[in-house]
């Protein structure tokens, strides 16, 4: 990659000085699978990237060995630095990308509030809904860092970290209330194998990312019980209907659900064995306990916790989400997994359109 996005234009502050002054500095918070893979996209796109995480050995290995064997074994990373020092990571960063598990986002970001560069844009890669508040991640970010919503964006789409880290071709959505913010982020992460589209439907894009994980759990459970592609396709299609109903009730645009962040990510997550949510659901379907399934899956399966906040949101807004309700029942141990299919089919018949 040559050049890369320059430090100029909106939204902005003055470029940091020194040799890297002409390259856009980006801090990625969270050195897990997606934080690391997205840092790679940004570096390939020409940004000056620093990765922050809690684990000193991961930071050393990313900086010195160009590898994160814990989360992306076998992947050779482009040149980037990594640190456990948040102040060092955030210094001079015009874009800050948050890629920690959703339920720790607020606690992770709040202590960084005073370290953020004035005018920095903050991007959520997270696909969850905060328990206890039912808030979307861009809202949590704006509150935790005390910045205007117009400076917050979300990147979401069919983006399995391992495939992106292998530089397999993929597209995604960058959503922000402010078109300038979305364009700024899209320019920063546009690489030869990664194509971001902009969108201003932040609510729709974030709901798609969080709820598809719940539907992927349901698909995994069904496949673990031995059901085949008809069941999978039924759950994906009716899952999309659930996501759309909730999104419409919260003010999202219907076309978002047919796009990359909606149908696109739903298909990738429900079909791929690389998905942690799908895999965890499958383990449950095969008879593991929740604790066993979490341990066997490894990594963050956001749907386990976010299913409860999604269902809570649905109840608050009077939206019917039977698949989500079934997943919450199974996860909480209150509903036997082998009765889920029959319970979903026993509901009163209705028109497909509602
Ligand atoms: N992996 C993917 O393919 C993928 C793709 C798109 C979006 N996402 C989303 O990105 C987010 C991060 O997922 P991931 O795949 O990188 O997860 P991961 O499980 O690979 O890594 C999570 C990282 O967060 C760190 N972490 C955990 N608790 C923390 C805390 N209290 N404070 C700071 N760091 C903490 C862990 O040490 C780890 O480095 C999730 O919301 C996920 O849904 C993941
Ligand atoms: O591994 P999962 O289930 O978190 O899914 C990964 C991504 O969200 C797919 O786009």
TrEMBL record:
It is found in: Cytoplasm. Residues 201-339 form the Glycerol-3-phosphate dehydrogenase NAD-dependent C-terminal domain. HAMAP family: NAD_Glyc3P_dehydrog. It comes from Myceligenerans crystallogenes. Coiled coil: none annotated. Residues 26-181 form the Glycerol-3-phosphate dehydrogenase NAD-dependent N-terminal domain. This is Glycerol-3-phosphate dehydrogenase [NAD(P)+]. Its EC number is 1.1.1.94. It catalyses: sn-glycerol 3-phosphate + NADP(+) = dihydroxyacetone phosphate + NADPH + H(+); sn-glycerol 3-phosphate + NAD(+) = dihydroxyacetone phosphate + NADH + H(+). The keyword Lipid biosynthesis applies. It holds the Pfam family NAD_Gly3P_dh_C. Keywords: Cytoplasm, Lipid biosynthesis, Lipid metabolism, NAD, NADP, Nucleotide-binding, Oxidoreductase, Phospholipid biosynthesis, Phospholipid metabolism. Belongs to the NAD-dependent glycerol-3-phosphate dehydrogenase family.
